[in-house]
Amino acid sequence: METASLSVLIVDDEAPARERLRNLLGDLAAEQPTRVIGMAGNGLEALRMLESNPVDLILVDIRMPAMDGIEFAQHVAQLHPVPRIIFVTAYDEHAVQAFELNAIDYLLKPVRAERLGVALQKARQAAPLTRESLDVIAEPRRHLTCSERGKIHLIPISDVLFLKAELKYVTARTAGREYLLEESLVQLEQEFPERFVRIHRNCLVSRGAVVGFERSVGEDGGEGYWSVRLNGLTELLPISRRQWANVRAVLGD
What we know:
Layout: E1 6-11, H1 15-27, E2 34-40, H2 43-52, E3 57-61, H3 69-76, E4 84-89, H4 93-101, E5 106-108, H5 113-125, H6 131-137, E6 143-148, E7 151-156, E8 162-166, E9 169-173, E10 178-181, H7 185-191, E11 196-200, E12 203-206, E13 210-216, E14 225-230, E15 236-238, H8 241-251
Parallel strand pairs: 1-2, 1-3, 3-4, 4-5
Antiparallel strand pairs: 6-7, 8-9, 8-12, 9-10, 11-12, 13-14, 14-15
Helix pairs in contact: 2-3, 3-6
């Protein structure tokens, strides 16, 4: 039976490395048919390309500026359908051990044709990587992802003022606008414990954005409550009585 051709995206910040992978794929075309749909120099550029050019397989370098290969893969894992991913790396003992422990395929540079052929065959049969398996080996992300009408928005974590759970979504608020995320507030709290603090069961705020606290009067003159004011926002966010002591301990009086 004829082997189906895989559409491939190559992502590496070094042009010679991208060309080498494309040439190797060409050398293997008889046994492992592929079509190189595009090549990108970093993860941000690659995500933009995937908006209009979905692929079956991505070959991605780990060490890249702006967004490393593992963070890129975390964002890719939220696409539908999810492409297969093979990581490419110069020898990195920590990364290699993590990949082997979590059954994630990788290629060591300089990539050899025989090893690439084996990886391509495995990719045809393997299930896409899950976000959970990638989170185990990843550093905290530098971006969050929001998909709107087929376009991928990348939100720098440093721009996020607060995160609020609403129904099945989480709203990420920046100074400019709101974004809907298909993520869990609990997972975000665990991933970024140094950046965000919980002020309510449904809300995390950026520690660096807090400029002060205000006492508000309760409805009908009832018991008052504290709210937090964030830099650049007129909206006050209420702090639950349950979280007030922890907020004071973390952020100060």
